[in-house]
């Protein structure tokens, strides 16, 4: 077992105001084994968003081979990223992402990063509130958001979203222990719901063998209006980088700092293959059933895109059980996402308790949840937020593995007493600007340039750090 690095305590040697060890290494008494993470990852990734992502794959006209094999490979690459990058570094230092970045970037620069990170996490959590609301609204005969909707569509929608957001925020504000327990309680129920959705949908589609299952997607089709056509590599790279901010972006340092050893990182496979494989395919199957209805065919023939609201889809498949599953699935993902956002805001306001800033994060997520556009464009939003945040993880990874070889000091901002590390900012700005320009200019899907951006940022950080550190020494 690796020893905890004890650097980074607050001046009086105690944890900061939230009791969540935001500015110190997690002590050995708080380390947890793999069981504490297995349920959390299975619950977080077999979640409400899966009810949207599965159907959205079908709206891109993906083929059977591209979806089934592409997801196998992409999710495996994600697990490897968590295990050998995130978990290994988290157990070495046991700091939050935000505290570790502060030591490298400087207080002033990391404040801007934390703000952006927290807001993007709030938007992501907001999409999960939206998803749960589509289930809660069924008994109230609420009008469901359509694929092209942006604004709230009525007072019932607004009231339901606010109520769900308040409950999720309170759970997240109670800290990591409560978030982890909630996920462990709910995840078996949610996983069962996805499995049953897939079985019922297969029956409705008349699938009696693997060839029938394969024929559901066949060679693919033209994408729905306003959607991008997905190929094999779209599926591989999107599924790998769907959680780019968490693994190669190092956000889950804040979670794995509680792990007793790096091998706990393998527990992410529960999330990837139960959630991002079985659940996505099950959700796609129930949407395939929906697409065969005369009502949807009429919508498609008119040149419009049908709804992908998960509540009605799950209700049509499993009845009341489906409604409950969608509600709980939204909670289990929104809880840790708002918790992460709260840690980001707490790093900006260290004197404020984590509970208070987490409630602020929950409020922002609730407001975001009022606008269905984020959930309806989830494939694009997830690609964008990973592309923005992941390069900062490269700063941590490249310093961790290559600082000595590059001849640079670790945690330079802390040691040199600087508040704004120009090497970090320039590395991110150049890599982000270059590859975002390539994406726009040549119409390249963002997931295709996420890895090149991440690698470029890490290399540029080493080069710029060497230049600026030697310049200061000289």
Which helices and strands appear, and what pairs or packs with what?
Blueprint: H1 34-45, H2 50-59, H3 64-93, H4 97-105, H5 107-136, H6 155-173, H7 176-204, H8 210-215, H9 232-241, H10 253-256, H11 268-291, H12 294-301, H13 310-318, H14 320-348, H15 354-369, H16 373-376, H17 378-406, H18 412-416, H19 422-441, H20 446-473
Give the structure's gist in a few sentences.
This protein has 474 residues and is mostly helical.
Give the CA-based shape: globular
Largest sheet: none
Cα-to-Cα separation, first versus last residue: 41 Å
Number-wise, the strands total 0
In total, the number of domains comes to: 1
Low-confidence stretches: 1-18
CATH topology: Hydantoin permease
| Global Rg | 22 Å
* CATH class category: Mainly Alpha
Individual helix count: 20
What does this structure look like?
The chain has helices at residues 34-45, 50-59, 64-93, 97-105, 107-136, 155-173, 176-204, 210-215, 232-241, 253-256, 268-291, 294-301, 310-318, 320-348, 354-369, 373-376, 378-406, 412-416, 422-441, 446-473. 56% of the residues are buried. It is mainly α. The protein has one domain (30-379): Hydantoin permease. It is globular, with a radius of gyration of 22 Å. The protein starts with 33 loop residues before the first helix and ends with a helix.
